[in-house]
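Protocol step 4 of 6: record predicted structures for both targets in the notebook before any analysis. Target 1:
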Amino acid sequence: MTDLTGGVRFYLQRKSGAGERRACAIAAALAAGVTGGTADAAPALDHAPYGTTQGGQAVEIFTMTNHHSLRVRFLSLGGVITEIDVPDRAGRLDDVVLGLNSLREYETLPGHFGAITGRYANRIGGAQFTLNGQIYHLIANNGPNTLHGGPDALDRQVWTVAPLTVPDGVAAMLSYVSPDGDQNFPGTLTMHVTYTLTNDDVLQIAYVASTDKDTVVNFTNHSYFNLAGNGSGSVADQLLLVNADRYTPVAPDLIPTGEIAPVESTPLDFRQMMPIGARLHSAFQQMVYAHGYDHNFVLNKSSGDGMTFAARAYDPRTGRVIDCFTTEPGVQVYTSNGMNGSVVGSSGTAYRQTEGFTLETQHFPDSPNKPNFPTTELKPGQEFRSTTIFRFATDAPLPPLPR
């Protein structure tokens, strides 16, 4: 237990195997008292043209608004979340994700800002894997490795978007069919990703996928968060707690070694909240390899667990909080290490290292080449399902973490 500013106490507790539906209900119920606001307007889902891709496809921007006026905007291109407007402790709304200025930038610039990433999120070492005795050679786009599915992956595709009717909120389903051989992955992969914004200030992202041939899958959302607001500078003094006692150390090329190491082997103990800018002292080489954090943390969960508390991030200056829950076994914490000031974001400011952080809920990097990691194989007749919740709150009052 760590005692932080304003007398707020933060707890990290292991979940006890509750089912996904019950966990979602718990998350929503805990969030219900966060804002204390009254309904300003009915929840709404609006859309408008956003331009045309270099290939001639029309792209739309969608805006989800709940009755507290919390707003989430996303594109049909890659499901890119361009903006999340949430209140601070004084009720002042601000955008808490990093974005770009134009469709062309989302198409061409690196960084995967806010996008659905896959068919395999994170890295596959050597840009290849073996499945059923066959070697699949992927497209290297991160040195010798494949990152986030390849150079023309899901974040570069235009998805079909359809509104959904849900109780107490707004939702939209994004659909895309990735053909057999796309980025050299096997199997025709049919995907549906649903974004739901509830009146309890919860953004839920639910993934469903099926295949007609044995393949590997791993999805995540690549939003960069800055709880002080887009363009406010470094997140190094914001605080982070991750529900993980172990992580997967990496080699110099950022591919996991295959080891699952205890976090307690370093001064970095994510069972307590700590500044995002802190360093791994006895594991300093890990920070050198990644130029900061770019590490997968193994969430504390039993094999039978569904939805699990993954992380809490907190900005003492604004009082904003994000709680993250997921059905995934890991979360990748990345501190925008590749940003060097060459990109001017939607805030009008140049983005630099530690300008934002990610909470990429996912299976582990390079799992197809690491048999001791949880499997990412998907077979015909099976259905891949994954759900992640981001709950937005402030420290006035701050909901307790779930038991």
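Target 2:
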Amino acid sequence: METCKLSRREREKLRQRQEVLDVALGLFSEKGYHNVSMHEIAKAAEFAIGTLYKFFRNKEDLYRALICNSATGFMGPSPR
């Protein structure tokens, strides 16, 4: 298996994206999808709202990423 080396900046971006997803999942679980705003997610994750929009076009896109991550967790990584 070939290991892909990511730069520090790329690793940091992935970490930030995952942090946003973790916070969003917690808020969606607690309050429901329709009762959570992107501003609320940004505030809880301690990021500027623009940072969220660097990773996700809108709340629906963020939610879709959560669902895809969950599905990958259930099914495992895709075969190459």
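Step 5 preliminary note on target 2. The two ends are 11 Å apart (CA to CA). Helices lie at 8-31, 38-45, 49-55, 59-75.
Proceed to step 6 after PI sign-off.
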